[in-house]
Amino acid sequence: xxxxxxxxxxxxxxxxxxxxSCAASGLSFSTSVMGWFRQAPGKGREFxxxxxxxxxxxxxxxxxxxxxxxSRDNAxxxxxxxxxxxxxxxxxxxYCGKDRSPLYTGRRQxxxxxxxxxxxxxxxxxx
Length: 127
Known about the structure:
Layout: E1 3-7, E2 10-13, E3 18-25, E4 34-39, E5 45-51, E6 58-60, E7 68-73, E8 78-83, E9 92-99, E10 114-115, E11 121-126
Parallel strand pairs: 2-11
Antiparallel strand pairs: 1-3, 3-8, 4-5, 4-9, 5-6, 7-8, 9-10, 9-11
């Protein structure tokens, strides 16, 4: 049974930092492209970042470029999202997911491209 468990969210002031973790089990993590999405109240699920199987390649939505960094540790079956210079508009529930395709392209940013979502981690940024 595939499980993705996010952690690390919380309440932070604008300009602060948080690091999210996503621990995976029940899948071949090292051969999986992983991604982070977020969903703000009243909005749909938005792509944030994705990372290739080896961690060498990554891509981001424009609104987080230069502030967020996605990474992974295949030995720990975990992917991370380091979030710096947080803004109130980053407030959302953050989800990690596994790309349905094992091939990283840097262009798969639709939630339907992903499967096996975690339960989400709430990030709240106060102004």
